[in-house]
Amino acid sequence: MAHQRESAELIAAEALAWLAGQDELFPVFMGASGVTIDEMRQRAGEPEFLAAVLDFLLMDDAWITGFCDDTGLAYDRPRAARAALPGAALDDWA
Length: 94
Known about the structure:
Layout: H1 2-20, H2 25-33, H3 37-43, H4 47-57, H5 61-71, H6 77-83
Helix pairs in contact: 1-4, 1-6, 4-6
């Protein structure tokens, strides 16, 4: 279980790094999350914040496919990672 959570956190951190490199999408994420750059840097290792990163990406299939295509992840990995982080409703991921 701990390995699954660590793996999920790594995927979410990778998603955050990917978002930071998306010139058009990153400001949308910043606006939606309400965090400043400094807050994002401070919270980047928090499982709850990482879950919010994945929640954001999961809002649009194009964002998920872009992230997965660019990083070589299978399309189902971000959703599985989100399920392993705090705040996931088990019924949502069944």
